[in-house]
Amino acid sequence: MAPLGRSRRLSLSEKPRKSAAQVGNAGAPARGSSDQISLGDLSENLGYRIRRAQLWIFKDIGQSLAGFQLSPAQFSVLTIIDANPGINQLTISSALSIERAGLGRLVDRLERRGLVTRGASSANRRYYALQLTTEGAALLRRIRPVIAQREDGLAAMLGRKLYRELMQALSVFLEK
Predict the structure, then answer these.
(1) Angle at 66 between CA 142 and CA 131, to 5 degrees
(2) What is the full DSSP assignment across 114-171?
(3) How much is the pLDDT for 4?
(4) pLDDT digit string (tens) for 39-66?
(5) Distances in Å between the alpha carbon of 77 and those of 12, 66, 90, 95?
(6) Contacts of 128 (CB under 8 A, 6+ apart)
(7) Looking at the structure, do residues 62 and 95 belong to the same domain, yes or no?
(8) Is residue 47 located within the same domain as residue 14?
(9) Claim to verify: residue 139 and residue 128 sit in the same structural domain
(10) Neighbours of 40 (CB within 10 A)
(11) CA dist., res. 44 & res. 46, Å (int)
(12) Residue ending a domain, choose from 47, 66, 85
């Protein structure tokens, strides 16, 4: 971490993926790069660092899910449906902070792949109740070990104690 008052520099061509050594210095460019910019106060901003970590993690997870032809958002939706059979799109949209129209298109793709079904909701006829298909549930069972392996990798990179502390500290945002 740079001392307060010193800003970090970021290469314009820098990608979100970092080595284990660079994760602690999110935003720091590779040495010797000629197209660097100053991050100013951003380098000391928690929100910026969390966003950089999110980009790195989503890229890593995205690469892991690519073989299943699934995005991190699609995995999240499948996971929510699995945990809440019969849930409606509006509730998922709210839980994952995905715009309703975007979630509708995402569910359309999952439905075309035969991973989810939409049925009439018994609670509110204006909503569809979403269910995993047998194929969707099977895919999720195959993906879970891959996601667990990525989480283990993050824990190893950060150190188990720091990983647990970070998970605990960030849990305050689960209900926001």
Answers:
(1) 50
(2) TSEEEEE-SS-TTSEEEEE-HHHHHHHHHHHHHHHHHHHHHHHHH-HHHHHHHHHHHG
(3) 40
(4) 899 989 999 999 999 999 999 999 999 9
(5) 33, 16, 12, 10
(6) 88, 89, 118, 119, 120, 121
(7) no
(8) yes
(9) yes
(10) 11
(11) 6
(12) 66
